[in-house]
Design a protein that fits this description.
Number of domains: 2
Structural class: mainly alpha
Largest sheet: 3 strands, antiparallel
Helix content: over 70%
Number of strands: 3
Oligomer: single chain
Radius of gyration: 31 Å
Order of helices and strands: HHEHEHHEHHHHHH
Number of helices: 11
Distance between the termini: 35 Å
Length: 300
């Protein structure tokens, strides 16, 4: 039994590796195109993950409504407005920000300290910071709050109609474009791999014909070619996965603060998982392309 296993391993894997190396010139186009596809897939996957996290952050920020108060607002009107907002079932929480706190927060935002210093008084109003449970309900809370007598009539709230919808539309457009690009490149990579396996089959057609004539089982005829495709896919996946992981690691190491803002949620562990997924995708893509070519050209 041990000798049978050794012979099968030698025939399927060692023989396939030897034939793959012998046909390196024919496998190189498939290897390079698949590596490029997988590298772009890894980058787009990490970018999509970061954009998804960014969309959630933007949704969280968009669901916070700042209701700006008049400087001369009556205390009773402010008290009634806060109670009205807090009792609303669509509201998760209501916090008060004084003028001094608003000025302190503005001084940490680029450009606003110059605006504050240009005025002799504090130009930033006090506000109620309303955390709405769903971003879709912000418009209704805004409509209810802006007519209150305690609210600044010139600039009542921070609500920007359609801002979150515009963000979603941009992210959807980017996702569709990325998927379409990967689909085209994936089709090219599969076709190049199929053609390289077909060339390998034709170059060893006498060997294949002899195996078929002596009644060799299908796995013995097909197996080496599928393993050759798997070698192409695994090498391309390993190269693309390592490059993807290396670029993400370099970005994290060079500027952790700015990188976390540019690509929120992308950590070393996420980059490692992305590299592993890229490798597994390459292995599956190479094996699947080879199986497709073998079924088409060995049974035709």
């Amino acid at each position: 039994m041990e000798a049978v296993v050794k012979n099968v391993f030698r025939y399927l894997f060692k023989g396939a590796a030897r034939n793959w190396a012998r046909n390196l010139g024919g496998n190189a186009p498939a290897l390079s195109s698949m590596a490029l596809l997988l590298f772009l897939t890894g980058l787009i996957g990490l970018s999509g993950f970061a954009l998804m996290n960014l969309e959630q952050i933007q949704a969280g920020e968009a669901s916070v409504l700042h209701v700006y108060l008049r400087d001369d607002a009556d205390a009773t009107d402010m008290f009634n407005l806060r109670n009205q907002l807090a009792r609303d079932p669509r509201v998760a929480s209501v916090n008060f920000t004084s003028k001094a706190q608003a000025l302190q927060h503005a001084q940490s935002i680029p450009g606003l300290p110059q605006l504050a210093s240009a005025s002799e008084s504090n130009p930033f109003p006090a506000s109620f910071d309303v955390q709405v449970k769903s971003v879709d309900q912000v418009a209704a809370i805004d409509a209810m709050a802006r007519t209150n007598p305690a609210v600044d009539p010139t600039y009542p709230t921070s609500y920007d109609r359609g801002a979150y919808q515009r963000i979603q539309a941009v992210l959807l457009g980017v996702a569709i474009a990325g998927i379409a690009f990967l689909a085209v490149l994936g089709f090219v990579a599969v076709m190049v791999t199929v053609n390289s396996i077909r060339a390998a089959i034709h170059s060893r057609r006498d060997e294949v014909a002899i195996l078929q004539l002596v009644g060799a089982p299908r796995w013995m005829v097909r197996g080496p070619f599928i393993v050759e495709g798997a070698i192409t896919g695994s090498l391309a996946g390993a190269a693309a996965g390592l490059v993807t992981f290396g670029l993400a690691l370099a970005g994290i190491a060079e500027g952790s603060a700015s990188f976390s803002q540019f690509a929120p949620g992308v950590t070393i562990s996420v980059a490692a998982v992305a590299g592993a997924i890229v490798f597994a995708t390459g292995l599956g893509l190479g094996s699947g392309s080879s199986l497709l070519s073998v079924r088409r050209h060995l049974e035709s």
